[in-house]
């Protein structure tokens, strides 16, 4: 074939290698011919020989590409066959065949896909359109319900499944050998002691006494004892060191064994039970008085006293035989049950009510702390949680929470240390093991009392809405049954000095929402005749500091909130903008408000103005004001057994008021020691006892004696002379 350009010049491409310039064959024929040519002339000079070899290898490589992989073994045979075919082609081709025009067609090879990314869009008319639309709808529903659900986590990953591999390891064969040796008893003794001997210095070795004989050794061959003595100092010193090392080792083993026993969990549990048994034996009379059980008497004491009493009776019978009949007649006359009951009633009426101290919950950990709050467990009436902190800003210390049990009044069952003073705490009803704690820095933490760990289960340190002032009170509140459908659902509410009443959501972390932001209110003062109008003072802060709150015992949607400016606001959880009512009567900060559990329209409040006020929710004027001494009232609480009895904790004394007896003076007044201030009170849930916390870190347990509680709980309000007077009907 020849190629000519437009000018008529021959521009036919020449082959890279041609064996014969006169021959014009195809590319395959040229290569085969060149290989045959150089194969014949391969025995020439050194240069031609090397050229022949290189071209032969090139020819073989081209043949390898054209021949199938299975026929590469017979390379020499196929090469000869191809050369024969080339000669046949040379003979068949003529000049006319060479002058013929040949058409060459260029076709595109098949597309090789390196990366295939299927389309994410499908035609609506395709067969899979319905199935894909259904999957998209399900995914949209899942994404819609994902907000706030803990079961969904956003993650993206792409992994490749690794190919399975079989791995085999071959090692040398393990050879087992049996060896044995004969050892005498003294060899064992010396070898064992040699391990215990510590290396000695030369000064210690030279100071050893020489001339000591070693222990006698016995041989089995002669069956006789052969004492072996040595007068060298080294042998004597080694023997002494061996004996001392054995004694030291035995002593160390005993110490290690004793330490292992003391630190074992089983021994600790046994000590725990033993301590409880001892405490119950020691405090048995006081615990019986607390639970209102009869006091048990020691049998040994009773047997001794019974013997003496019997001897005295026999002597009296001998001396006063005649008077015995008269005394028995008098005794029978007074053993009538009706008479005895009347006598007991008279004695109870004559004896005045009083507080009898049983014991105090105190230990080395609580010394120097002030009792800030107390709370009973909602399920276990023997478990008491006490918070320790300081109310003064200048006297702040690290806080402490102790869980006391009546089974061991001398040491707490659990202790939790806090970075700041504890100001409030409360047990949960739905989860009795959860204890919520509020601190002076505004943090809220939840502890698990079943765990022995000191760390909090949840805290508000990561919350962006946490309080900026002290949390003065918190409480677990049961939600409305109609709203939730389950009476055990609870919410945690607290009030703080930053003027916010918040509700905390207990999930993976604590977060809160505001129920109310307490705003300052102007005091309503009557203008006297002829008095000029006073200018309104500018307020430093628009929010009033919250000090205490209490939810209504029947409808937890309503609650009372006491403020630092002396006002009490009635609020609703449904409205966070305005107050339902405002009660003005105190002239100082309100430290505690408490609804009456029996008459749910009445509530008490105590303040720093030395007074305790009784309110009715329908009237904004106080019903009764109790002010017996000039002292700050820190806490007040209604009795869980009577609608007329309440306790008030003043700095100098604890007072028990019975409104059915007197509204002017308390029926019981217990005075504190000179360096002691009472800070909180708490009634026992199932007994007639009162718990009082003080500034020294002690929680005193008192028994209410000779305090007759009314049989009923009815309350009748009567309006007289434009003043609402409260009469309690027993």
TrEMBL record:
BP terms from Gene Ontology: cilium movement
Subcellular location: Cytoplasm, Cytoskeleton, Flagellum axoneme; Dynein axonemal particle
UniProt feature, compositional bias: Low complexity: 46-61, 229-245
Superkingdom of origin: Eukaryota
Positions of the UniProt region annotated as Disordered: 1-22, 43-73, 200-252, 313-333
Any one annotated GO CC term: axonemal dynein complex
Gene Ontology MF annotations: dynein heavy chain binding; dynein light chain binding
InterPro entries reported in the protein's UniProt record: Dynein_IC (IPR050687), WD40/YVTN_repeat-like_dom_sf (IPR015943), WD40_repeat_dom_sf (IPR036322), WD40_rpt (IPR001680)
Keyword GTP-binding among record annotations: no
Keyword line: Cell projection, Cilium, Cytoplasm, Cytoskeleton, Flagellum, Repeat, WD repeat
Biased composition (Basic and acidic residues): 1-12
Extent of the WD repeats: 583-625, 626-660
This protein's record includes keyword Zinc: no
Alphabetized Pfam families for the sequence: WD40
Protein name: Dynein axonemal intermediate chain 4
Organism: Glareola pratincola
């Amino acid at each position: 074939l020849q190629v000519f350009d437009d000018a008529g010049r021959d521009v036919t491409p020449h082959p890279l290698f041609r064996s014969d310039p006169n021959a014009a064959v195809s590319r395959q024929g040229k290569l085969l011919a060149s290989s045959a040519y150089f194969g014949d002339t391969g025995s020439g000079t050194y240069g031609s020989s090397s050229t022949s070899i290189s071209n032969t290898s090139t020819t073989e490589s081209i043949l390898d590409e054209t021949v199938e992989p299975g026929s590469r073994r017979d390379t020499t045979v196929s090469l000869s066959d191809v050369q024969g075919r080339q000669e046949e082609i040379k003979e068949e081709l003529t000049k006319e065949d060479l002058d013929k025009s040949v058409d060459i067609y260029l076709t595109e090879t098949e597309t090789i896909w390196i990366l295939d990314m299927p389309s994410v869009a499908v035609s609506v008319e395709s067969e899979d359109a319905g199935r894909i639309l259904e999957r998209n709808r399900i995914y949209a529903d899942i994404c819609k319900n994902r907000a706030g659900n803990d079961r969904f986590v956003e993650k993206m990953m792409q992994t490749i499944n690794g190919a399975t591999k079989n791995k085999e390891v071959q090692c040398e064969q393990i050879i087992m050998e049996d060896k044995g040796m004969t050892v005498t008893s003294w060899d064992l003794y010396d070898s064992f002691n040699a391990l215990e001997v510590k290396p000695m210095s030369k000064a210690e070795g030279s100071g050893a006494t020489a001339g000591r004989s070693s222990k006698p050794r016995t041989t089995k061959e002669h069956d006789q004892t052969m004492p072996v003595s040595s007068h060298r100092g080294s042998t004597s010193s080694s023997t002494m060191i061996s004996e001392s090392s054995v004694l030291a080792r035995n002593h160390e083993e005993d110490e290690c064994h004793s330490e292992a026993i003391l630190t074992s969990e089983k021994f600790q549990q046994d000590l725990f039970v033993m301590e409880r048994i001892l405490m119950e034996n020691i405090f048995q009379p006081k615990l019986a008085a607390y639970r209102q059980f009869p006091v048990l008497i020691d049998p040994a004491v009773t047997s001794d006293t019974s013997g003496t009493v019997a001897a005295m009776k026999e002597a009296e019978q001998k001396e006063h035989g005649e008077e015995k009949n008269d005394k028995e007649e008098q005794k029978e006359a007074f053993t009538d049950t009706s008479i005895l009951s009347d006598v007991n009633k008279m004695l109870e009426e004559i004896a005045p009510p009083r507080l009898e101290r049983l014991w105090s919950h105190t230990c080395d950990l609580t010394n120097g702390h002030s009792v800030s709050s107390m709370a009973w467990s909602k399920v276990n009436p023997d478990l008491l949680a006490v918070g320790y902190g300081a109310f003064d800003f200048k006297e702040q210390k690290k806080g402490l929470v102790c869980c006391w049990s009546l089974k061991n009044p001398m040491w707490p069952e659990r202790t939790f240390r806090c970075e700041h003073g504890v100001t409030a705490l409360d047990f949960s009803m739905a989860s009795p093991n959860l204890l919520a704690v509020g601190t002076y820095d505004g943090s809220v933490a939840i502890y698990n009392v079943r765990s022995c760990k000191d760390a909090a289960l949840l805290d508000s340190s990561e919350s962006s809405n946490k309080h900026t002032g002290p949390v003065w009170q918190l409480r677990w509140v049961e939600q409305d049954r109609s709203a939730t459908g389950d009476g055990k659902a609870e919410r945690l509410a607290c009030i703080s000095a930053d003027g916010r009443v918040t509700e905390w959501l207990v999930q993976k972390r604590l977060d809160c929402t505001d129920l109310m932001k307490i705003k300052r209110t102007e005091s309503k003062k009557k203008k006297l005749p002829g008095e000029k109008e006073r200018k309104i003072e500018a307020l430093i802060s628009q929010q009033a500091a919250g000090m205490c709150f209490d939810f209504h015992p029947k409808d937890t949607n309503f609650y009372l909130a006491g403020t630092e400016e002396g006002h009490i606001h009635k609020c609703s959880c449904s409205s966070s903008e305005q107050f339902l009512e405002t009660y003005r009567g105190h002239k100082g900060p309100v430290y505690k408000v408490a609804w009456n559990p029996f008459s749910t329209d009445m509530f008490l409040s105590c303040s720093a103005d030395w007074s305790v006020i009784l309110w009715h929710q329908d009237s904004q004027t106080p019903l009764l004001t109790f002010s017996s001494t000039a002292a700050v009232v820190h806490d007040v609480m209604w009795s869980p057994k009577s609608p007329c009895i309440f306790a008030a904790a003043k700095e100098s004394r604890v007072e028990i008021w019975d409104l059915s007896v007197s509204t002017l003076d308390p029926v019981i007044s217990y005075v504190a020691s000179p360096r002691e201030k009472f800070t909180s009170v708490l009634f026992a849930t199932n007994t007639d006892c009162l718990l009082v916390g003080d500034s020294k870190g002690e929680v005193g347990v008192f028994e209410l004696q000779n305090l007759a509680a009314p049989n009923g709980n009815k309350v009748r309000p009567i309006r007289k002379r434009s003043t609402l007077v409260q009469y309690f009907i027993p």
